[in-house]
Amino acid sequence: MRLSGSRSASPIAREGIPFILGAAALAVVLTGLLSRWGGLPTTVPLTIGAGLVGFTAFFFRDPAPREDAPAHVALAPAQGRVADITEVEHPYMGGRCRRIGIFLSIFDVHVQRAPWPGVVEDRGYRKGRFFAAWSPEASNENEQAELCLRGEAGPFVVRQIAGLVARRIVTDPEVGDRVARGGRIGLIRFGSRVELLMPLDWTVLCAVGDRVRVGRSGVARCARTKNGPEAEG
Asked: Which of 63, 74, 133, 139 is the 20 to 30 Å CA partner of 100?
């Protein structure tokens, strides 16, 4: 069984490297043009170029998950604002379950991480529309990818949903892969929505309007398990 997802993250998501290199190349060209034909001091285009590279790196930052989370706490799968908490139906969950929807703005971290350790039993992708991600209707209408996982505390689902700006969803684990709590599971460019579907016996630790940090904020307390989170490899 393959262990999927990094916990000791690089400060920058790998998908951002080509964009950062492109921004750096553009900065070099811009510096040369503005210095030679624009009559500007070299420090001006250099400052503009450095700002462009820095802003691109900021967009693709990938903070490491916390290592000291309590044993039975599920961590936020995404960074942003809790947009809604409600009960829904889902076939993989065996009927009624609780859904926590998190809205990611264009300025939030775009990497997603596993809230709880488990094995990927199913995954899917569905094309759709691009409603604003903060709207609950985005859950049913928008383009999205879904991971269905099972851990010691039961089944759970992480759903990546494209938003008004986001047009690219990356999902890392394959069926049969094991993910650790806090392990990377994907990325969405740029503003978007991520949902955690969990059993009703998990206790919610967040509220609508809360800001949560991916892989660091506790969003639920899982039903008591024998050994806490499964071995994280």
From this structure: 63
Is 217 considered catalytic here?
no
* Residue ranges making up the domain that contains 38: 14-59
* Residues with Cβ within 8 Å of residue 182, at least 6 apart in sequence: 7, 65, 66, 67, 69, 75, 113, 114, 215, 232
Given 4, 6, 139, 192, the catalytic residue: 192
Report pLDDT digits (tens) over 42-76: 776 677 778 878 877 777 788 889 888 898 999 99
Please report how the helices 17-36 and 43-59 are oriented relative to each other, as an axis angle in degrees rounded to 10: 170
When pLDDT is cut at 50, 70 and 90, the band that residue 9 belongs to is low
Task: Indicate if 133 and 205 belong to the same structural domain.
Answer: yes
- Identify whether the C-beta of residue 203 lies closer than 8 Å to the C-beta of residue 194: no
Q: Are 106 and 80 in contact (CB under 8 A)?
A: no
More confident residue, 163 or 32: 32
